[in-house]
Amino acid sequence: FSINSSELELNEELGRGNYGTVKKVIHKPTNVPMAMKEIRLELDQSRLNAIIMELEILHKASEKSEYIVEFHGAFFSESCVYYCMEYMDAGSLDKLVNYELGEVVQIVPGVNDEALTWKGVPEEVLARVATSVVKGLKFLKDELEVIHRDVKPTNVLINKKGQVKLCDFGVSGQLEKSLAKTSIGCQSYMAPERIRSESEGQAPSTYTVSSDVWSVGLSLIEIAIGRYPFPPEVYTNALAQLQAIVSDDPPELPDRYSEVARHWVARCLVKSPADRAGYAELLEHEFVKADESREVDMASWVSEALSFRDAKMRVRTVSKSMSAPPTA
Ligand code: ADP
């Protein structure tokens, strides 16, 4: 648990979240790569101690589940909390599958020597993601009495071995309390009952596991179709988007997936929380049972998805530099 900044070698930025940046670092004494999240906070010592204590519990617990990103340690420096966790070398699912089915990256000399087609997320892979996420959430609930509250594809991480793990769960109530309240983002994964109770100004303590189940369903559809399932805010506005979540029929998994898969997702996206599936039902469902009974070559799928993502990124860079105005 004792990590300090002098032991870390800073590498590239992995992403940016609501509260700060995430960078790749190498823990020099052990040569272990880690993801370090910087969270800006103005805190007094007693608050800091409380946070450290909670993070220590998390540290011990996170070693017990293969569906939770391991927590390596945290330290404070100049009014920032630095939170070090397991580095997931294929990143978050939002960035890995954010493509339209059939999208092609053409050959670009010196970049990719064959055209690549995005083949989407096969059912077996989707089922493995779903199973891992629900098992992770159930672990948090049963072992740590924690409700995630922020399930979305950005918080589902994957590595080249094909392991799927959750991150960013509100284990540290103290840390959460110290964070400024997130403004409603342009893509909401909030369940309809959450949107209603927030708009009525109810206490957030009414949050239950069931609201996370809704977010699981919505995230799975996003992972399957490569985009946020509700009309994007550019066509509407934040309020209209929230209104759609509350009033419209819930989105569905496309029919290229099996009835079993579609049923599982539909059970997550039942609008009334009382009728929505719980973790027990989801884990007993044929969708999960089938996943548990088969081998899935997740590593090959991740490798293919990374090739597509990298080719697409390099093509973008190439075309950007080609369209740059000539320098005089
Ligand atoms: P948010 O606040 O939106 O949930 P985060 O701050 O948690 O986002 O993370 C921002 C980005 O950093 C993620 O989208 C992901 O791509 C990357 N990232 C976060 N944690 C890790 C990790 N442990 N390993 C690899 N990449 C990570």
| Low-confidence regions | none
- Give the averaged pLDDT, no decimals: 87
Mind summarizing the main beta sheet?
5 strands, antiparallel
**Continuous helix count:** 11
Are any ligands bound, and if so which?
adenosine-5'-diphosphate
GO biological process, one term: cellular hyperosmotic response
Keywords: ATP-binding, Kinase, Nucleotide-binding, Phosphoprotein, Serine/threonine-protein kinase, Transferase
EC number: 2.7.12.2
GO molecular function: ATP binding; MAP kinase kinase activity; protein serine/threonine kinase activity
Q: How would you briefly describe this protein structure?
A:
Helix content is 41%, strand content 15%. It is α+β, with helices and mostly antiparallel strands.
Which key features would you list for this structure?
single chain, 328 residues, five-stranded antiparallel sheet, two-stranded antiparallel sheet, 11 helices, 15% strand, globular, binds adenosine-5'-diphosphate, kinase
Topology (SSEs and partners):
Blueprint: E1 8-16, E2 21-27, E3 32-40, H1 45-62, E4 71-77, E5 80-86, H2 93-96, E6 104-105, E7 116-117, H3 123-144, E8 156-158, E9 164-166, H4 173-178, H5 192-199, H6 209-225, H7 238-247, H8 259-268, H9 279-284, H10 286-292, H11 298-323
Antiparallel strand pairs: 1-2, 2-3, 3-5, 4-5, 6-7, 8-9
